[in-house]
Amino acid sequence: DQINVVLRWLLSKKATAAGIVREELGKLEERAKGSVVRLTELRSQHRELTEKSLCDSVLQEAADKLKSVEETVTKAADAEGPFLMGVEDLPLEETLSAVKGCEA
Predict the structure, then answer these.
(1) Could you give the CA distance from residue 25 to residue 13 in angstroms, rounded to a whole number?
(2) C-alpha separations of 42 from 47, 54, 62 in Å
(3) Which distant-in-sequence residues (6+ apart) come within 8 Å of 3 by Cβ?
(4) pLDDT tens figures, 15-63
């Protein structure tokens, strides 16, 4: 980080400075420290937003897949309906239609 390099440089110069120069270097040091804090906060916010965006996309994908599974299960249940009614002798056409529905 360039700010940390500047902070070290300011501290080394401040150690040998006197008077108004030392005061001005102190002000610059405080500004640099504030910048480090602000940069840390921004990095944290960026990380959180990136993770939230990733989670949102994963949740959307999961919701889409869940909807697809629900539709498939509903189709399978509808196709099995004639066999679950307890009717032993279905007409051939209904039987073949129901079997094709189960296979799809």
Answers:
(1) 8
(2) 9, 18, 30
(3) 32, 35, 36, 39
(4) 999 999 999 999 999 999 999 999 999 999 999 999 999 999 999 999 9
CA distance 22 to 15: 8
Cβ distance 14 to 26 under 8 Å? yes
Rounded CA gap, 34 and 53, in Å?
A: 28
Query: Are 90 and 82 a contacting pair, CB within 8 Å?
Result: yes
> Could you give the CA distance from residue 97 to residue 2 in angstroms, rounded to a whole number?
73
Structure tokens that stand for 26 in this block: 């102190």
